[in-house]
Write a structure and sequence with these properties.
Strand order of the largest sheet: 6-7-8-3-9-10
CATH class of the largest domain: Alpha Beta
Shape: globular
Radius of gyration: 19 Å
Number of strands: 10
Strand content: 15-25%
CATH superfamily of the largest domain: P-loop containing nucleotide triphosphate hydrolases
Distance between the termini: 33 Å
GO molecular function, one term: ATP binding
Number of domains: 2
Helix content: 25-40%
Organism: Solidesulfovibrio magneticus (strain ATCC 700980 / DSM 13731 / RS-1)
Largest sheet: 6 strands, mixed
Order of helices and strands: EEEHEEEHHHHEHEHEEHHH
Keywords: ATP-binding, Nucleotide-binding, Transport
Protein name: ABC transporter ATP-binding protein
Bound molecules: adenosine-5'-triphosphate
């Protein structure tokens, strides 16, 4: 049974369709890439899943639960976390604190218990810190632990954002262009992190990405959107060989990547 199920989702902005009858599935343990030309509806789709946008119609379920019946802020506690196309960190807070914010949905104890640091709250706090320290080690963020996030180089900020989403210990992580603006070395590192998040940390990944080399290398499945509709869905090689997909990209700025 699919883990994430998108069924017939339609989203319009003042009468203009961003998504029309979109349906696809993400199996547990997969890395699924959502690709398509600029304006195809990829970020809108992620926003419908995370709750930032509410579709006009359709169904979205995660692990059999109706996500659209759950308010956006509560979706993290159902095992969903995400990163943003434009980095959305608390720029004045340290890397450590940004990652602790990522744990927020897992913090069950009240402010008083946390401040006084007693009993179960103390044990929970220790567990939060352990998870955050594991993420810091994994993403090699130790040198930046106490640095304000906003002052860090761009590539490191992208890593901190990934870390914040990982800190939430979610089952499904939505990544919106995690390689955007990165150099080749940073891109290769990020691809390795995503593979490890999937294989070693057990997180299912739904990725929006323009770098077709990365998409081909790491995806278990690719879904192509074009003008808000699903154009193709399947294994990376089959999708990239699909004449309709090639045609959708021809002449666009992404066409160059299809040759890789
Ligand atoms: N908040 C909004 N208000 C109005 N229109 C919007 C809004 N968000 C998205 N759209 C429109 O929906 C369509 C799909 O946009 P979306 O950002 O989802 O595409 P995309 O595939 O993620 O593009 P890109 O690759 O450039 O990021 C576009 O026509 C866009 O202008």
């Amino acid at each position: 049974m699919p883990f994430l199920e998108i069924d017939n989702v339609t989203l319009t902005f003042r009468g203009i369709a961003a998504l029309t009858g979109v349906g696809f599935t993400v199996d547990k343990g997969g890395i699924v890439s959502l690709i398509g030309p600029n304006g195809a509806g990829k970020t809108s789709m992620l926003n419908c899943i995370s709750g930032r946008y509410t579709p006009d119609s359709g169904r979205i379920s995660l692990g059999g639960r109706d996500l659209l019946a759950v308010p956006a802020h509560a979706r993290t506690s159902l095992g969903l976390s995400r990163t943003f196309q434009n980095i959305a960190l608390f720029k004045g807070l340290s890397v450590l604190d940004n990652l602790m914010v990522g744990r927020h949905a897992r913090m069950d104890y009240g402010l008083l218990a946390s401040i006084l640091y007693f009993g179960p709250a103390r044990r929970a706090e220790d567990a939060h810190r352990r998870r955050v320290e594991d993420v810091i080690d994994f993403l090699r963020l130790s040198p930046y632990r106490h640095h304000p996030a906003g002052k860090l180089p761009y590539g490191v900020q992208k890593r901190v954002e990934l870390g914040r989403a990982m800190a939430a210990e979610s089952d499904l992580i939505l990544l919106d262009e995690p390689m955007a603006g990165m150099n080749l070395e940073e891109t290769e590192d990020m691809a390795r992190y995503i593979l490890d998040i999937n294989e070693e940390w057990g997180m299912t990944v739904l990725l929006v990405e323009h770098d077709m080399g990365v998409v081909m290398d790491i995806s278990s499945k690719v879904v192509v959107l074009d003008f808000g509709r699903v154009l193709a869905e399947g294994p990376p090689e089959a999708v990239m060989a699909d004449p309709a997909v090639v045609a959708a990209y021809l002449g666009g700025e992404d066409a160059v990547f299809l040759g890789r």
